[in-house]
Amino acid sequence: MMNTPCNIYLRLWPKLNLKIYRRCQQWILLNNQVSPTLHKKCVLARFYSHAVNGNYTHDSTIFSLSSGHGKCGVAVVRVSGPATWSVLQNIAQFKEKPAPRLALVRKLVNPNTRIVIDKGLVLYFQGPHSFTGEDSAEFQVHGGPAVVAALLGALHGVPGCRQALPGEFTKRAFQNAKLDLTEVEGLGDLIHAETEVQRRQALRQMEGDLGHLYQQWRTDIIKSVADLEAFIDFSEDQDIEDEVVQQVHARVGKLNDEIARHLDDKRQGERLREGVHVAIIGEPNVGKSSLLNAICQRPAAIVNDVAGTTRDVIETHVSLGGYPVLLSDTAGLRETEDKVEKEGVRRALQRAQQADVKVLVFDISRLQGQREPLRNMYQFIQHEIETLGLNDFNKEEHPDNVFDVRTKSKKNERVSYSSSFLKDYIIVFNKLDIVEEINIQNIIGQSKERSVQTNTVEADEQHGNGVPIVTEGDLTTYCISCTSGKGMDALVTALTRKVEQMCGNPLSGHPSLTQARHRAHLTACVAHLDHFRSGRPGGDIVLQSESLRRALREIGKLTGRITTEDILDVIFHDFCIGK
Questions:
Q1: Scanning 112, 126, 444, 522, which has its CA 20 to 30 A from the CA of 232?
Q2: CB within 8 A of 183, min separation 6: which ones?
């Protein structure tokens, strides 16, 4: 064996260190040779060096502050790993192992200096009956920064202990089969949940509802693969009927339909997890910033009577009925030569295109000089959308559902339209406080197709008379005043209802997709199942079974369980071959 640095690595594997690794790197640079094999060995050596010298393996015991940083009443420090009992002996001064899950008051000391750190509660969790599946312990001490720092410093002094990496406790729980990947993601979502409905969805996923659904699908595919494998290998020697293949096709067809329905969820779970994007758009000085402030109930945006005050997108997170909403105020849409404002308009149009809900705001006071009322609300909105430059992306998103204005003759103009793309819009007429009630009726008018209702909810001592809510076909517009608050309750209720429809109820029906990763793997799984079903009857079963194996691999990536042993277990269990 030649004395190359990599061969030295292999011979000195138990004694690796960072210095040898760097020598290997220098040798590669000097000899100008970067072969894939050599590079792979170097990377492996680097990893093993960390494992031996840095203790980044399951032989190490990790600890970390699990409660929040800063001053608090009680701080919780967690320990997990094989040296947990040593920690309890050295710091909590136990002479024998305590009973699991029993809280005991102990005096905590530094094992090196024997100085008392604090007096607190100590709990011992014996593996595998712990969060990580390993022997674990918790120290509940007073939450002062000095106390926490002293305890962490004492843990550093225990042989085999090190500070945990971010998420390492949960990673060990996954590696010890205490959690699957969907439950890990649910735990992360629960920690970051900001609204009540987000909490419900995350808790349901963390409890394993989504993982159980995927596991059931995985079991069905394993069964199908096992049946095909048995038919391929043993159909001539054993009593395995040809109907097995037909049963597999029926099972795969049913599974394919279930996954397809699961994918066709209109991104409800993802929207609930990330928040529904709502963009407030309109001309300058129509009250967009005032509306943002009124909904979030704080001065998040600057309000001024000078047109063009808002030049950039202003975002704020709000909770509507327990649903998360990312509310965006945008620059006023108009033609301008100002470079800064032009960029603001571009960003406003871009945000409107990306938004799940678009709140289109008009200034109703600018319409009171019109001689005729708005006889056709659809036609008015169409004209405004085209004027503001919003019609371009509406045509891209809904090419078959844009307005179609046709003229039969010069004397008799007939307008036909389809308003399905307006389902993502909420139409608002603002500045109701500066328009007299009689003028409102003149502006909006009435016709056979239009219903003008008075919102009785708003009829109270503070707001006076009710405010009109105009309904024409499936289009509803809301008249409000951001200054007086008139009509705001009805608008917020309508916005909350729309957000709720988009996110759905996370506790009803099957658990929802919550991650783009889930959607990617399931889409690939459906593609493989479709490929299997497209195979000709009596075709090459070996090739067809490969499509099922690939589908199984995609499902396994969802929960983190990818193995062929499960297939072998089913084969020998169901068919009892060779008994």
A1: 522
A2: 205, 206, 207, 208, 211
Supply the DSSP symbol for 51: I
- Residue 232 main-chain phi, psi, to 5 deg: -70, -45
> Coil, helix or strand for 469?
strand
Contact residues for 361 (Cβ-Cβ < 8 A; gap 6+): 280, 281, 282, 286, 287, 288, 291, 428, 430
Percent of the chain with pLDDT over 90: 46
Determine which helix (DSSP H) or strand (DSSP E) holds 299, and give its type and residue range: none
The answer to whether 194 and 210 have CB atoms below 8 angstroms apart is no
**Stretch (H or E) spanning 535:** none
SS3 315: strand
Neighbours of 299 (CB within 10 A): 11
Query: Which residues are CB-contacts of 97 (< 8 A; sequence separation ≥ 6)?
Result: 85, 88, 124, 126
C-beta of residue 468 within 8 angstroms of C-beta of residue 453: yes
Q: Across the strands, what pairs with 425?
A: 358
* Residue 468: cis peptide before it, omega within 30 degrees of 0: no
Q: pLDDT of 401-452, one tens digit each?
A: 433 433 333 334 434 444 566 788 999 999 888 876 556 666 665 444 455 5
Q: What is the pLDDT of residue 444?
A: 60
Domain 272-503, CATH class in plain words = alpha beta
Vertex 213, ends 219 and 263: CA angle to 5°? 110
The terminus-to-terminus CA distance of the chain in angstroms comes to 49
| Structure-derived torsion over alpha carbons of residues 115, 117, 121, 126, reported in degrees to the nearest 10 | -70
What is the Cα–Cα distance from 571 to 517, expressed in whole angstroms?
Answer: 31
pLDDT: which is higher, 470 or 135:
135
How is the chain split into domains, by residue range? 5-54, 61-175, 196-265+513-575, 272-503
| Residue among 545, 547, 537 nearest 571 (CA) | 545
Tell me if the domain spanning 196-265+513-575 has CATH number 1.20.120.430.
Answer: yes
Contact 435, 356 (CB under 8 A): no
Q: Which H/E stretch holds residue 137?
A: strand 136-143
Closest among 146, 216, 126 to 180, alpha carbons compared: 216
Query: Are 195 and 323 a contacting pair, CB within 8 Å?
Result: yes
Beta carbons within 10 angstroms of residue 349's beta carbon: 20
Which one, of 353, 385, 378, lies nearest residue 474 by Cα?
A: 378
CB 459, CB 427: distance < 8 Å: no
Cβ atoms within 10 Å, residue 192: 10
Q: Please give the CATH topology (third level) of the domain spanning 61-175.
A: Gyrase A; domain 2 (3.30.1360)
- In contact, 361 and 430? CB cutoff 8 Å: yes
- β-bridge pairing 357-363 and 425-430: parallel
What is the Cα–Cα distance from 149 to 133, expressed in whole angstroms? 27
Its pTM stands at 0.74
- Which residues is 108 bridged to in the sheet? 118
CB-based burial label for 265 (10 Å; 0-12, 13-18, 19+): middle
